[in-house]
Design goal:
By secondary structure, the protein is mostly helical. It has one domain. Helix content is about 80%, strand content about 0%. The radius of gyration is 17 Å and the shape is globular. It is a multi-pass membrane protein.
Length: about 120
């Protein structure tokens, strides 16, 4: 069981690193426009609190988090030119953003959900 948990943590760190690689690729001048657009879409979706399939739907709700995001990231990474990908990987590895937890972004997302919850409750009162 501990081995599975370690594997999940490793994959999560890799996805986080890959998201920062996509951000660097988006900013790189030699990245094709269609790849920049795909990178923007998947980065925005990965950080978005809104899912394609809501998480409250049993099993299906987590499919986008488990399957769609990693597959989308993998697809965009494959489309990035090799020389650009190498530079972006190096920049992402050196970046402190990959290594630290983003508490501010987490707090903003939690506050958004609390605001939505308060709004929904106020509709029914």
């Amino acid at each position: 069981m501990g081995e599975i948990l370690t594997d999940i943590k490793t994959r999560a760190k890799n996805i986080k690193r890959d998201i920062f690689i996509l951000i660097e690729a988006y900013k790189h001048p030699n990245t094709p426009l269609y790849v920049k657009l795909l990178a923007l879409i998947f980065v925005a979706y990965a950080f978005s609190p809104i899912d394609l399939i809501p998480d409250f739907i049993p099993i299906l709700g987590y499919l986008d988090d488990i399957i769609l995001i990693p597959l989308g990231i993998l697809l965009v990474l494959k489309l990035i030119p090799k020389d650009v990908l190498k530079v972006c990987r190096e920049k992402a590895e050196r970046s402190e953003k990959v290594k630290r937890k983003n508490w501010i972004a987490g707090a903003v997302i939690v506050l958004l959900w609390v605001g939505v919850l308060i709004w929904v409750v106020s509709l029914f009162l």
